[in-house]
Amino acid sequence: MRICVIMDLPFEAGEGEGGGERTLASTVLVVDDEPVVLDICARLLERDADLMVTLAASAEEALPLLTEQRFDVLVTDKNLPGMGGVELIAEARRLQPSLEAVMITGYASSESVVAAFAAGASDYILKPFDDLRVLRAKVRAALERRSAGILVREQAREVAREAAALLASGRDAPELAHEALESELRAYEESVRLGLNGRVAVVGGSDTVTVLKDAGFDALELPPYATELEDADVVIVETGDPQWRTLAERLQRKPPDVLLLASPQADLGDLLEAITLRMDLVGFGTSQGANALPEKVRMLLLRRGVQRAQDRLAAALASFRRSISAPSA
């Protein structure tokens, strides 16, 4: 759970729509041989002021960068001229073991996903990008995995390594198992898209609920003591509510993401309290306020959808691994 603050301030210091840490910039290396893809990725990710993006057109161009600089996330196309993306991921993880990797592919097959996860990837994204926000959400999720060391995703890598080793030794899964995994990959992609349909709770004012409902969200106003708040995906607390500090502390270790919506009248004490609670300060001008809150909520829901879908994908990989037949007697 992360807590973010959206403030109605006349500057944009530290703005980043996708959430995440703001104290130090996170570094992302994007590798693709198509200039248009590199341009799209750069423009999209650099909207977040806390992301520093480096581009490379090939694995051979990327490798010297990986030996000279620290990167948090590698995003690479699977099919590159020369060294391929799967091989690049493996070498990048050898050089920087804590690096997270996301593979870009035109089609996700059981073989390609097992190979990518076995090399050290923790996610993939289909090209062309139908929803550009998915790329940002997946990079954000990768950054959180890097900082949190989430066990289930590391287990998925280990399961994929075991499956790849068995496949390389001559064993194979039944055709039905391949079909089942590929069906799960389609379901994974669909569940990521449906991640935008989460539950949003608002404490503090009906105007915020109206703004969110107008933007297409399932938003509900609840009192600060409601137990249903802990079941929401995103909770928005307004500084106008006298209990916002108590509520923020109560939810700090609970599942929802919490957004603190500070009114123009929020005083310095509110900001200092937010810093004490390790809240993420996101500044934006008044002219942008109408769009900033829905976009922030949208990105948080999409990131949560990615994380839930990855847990299901990890389970599908484990099932595929179990289905690989033993060698014939």
TrEMBL record:
InterPro entries hit by this protein: Bact_response_regulator (IPR050595), CheY-like_superfamily (IPR011006), Sig_transdc_resp-reg_receiver (IPR001789)
SUPFAM superfamilies tied to this protein: CheY-like (SSF52172)
Residue ranges constituting the Response regulatory domain according to the UniProt record: 27-142
UniProt key word Magnesium: no
Keyword Chaperone annotated: no
Keywords tagged on the record: Phosphoprotein
A Pfam match: Response_reg
Domain of life: Bacteria
GO biological process terms on file: phosphorelay signal transduction system
Annotated positions of the 4-aspartylphosphate modification: 77
Name of the molecule in the record: CoB--CoM heterodisulfide reductase subunit A
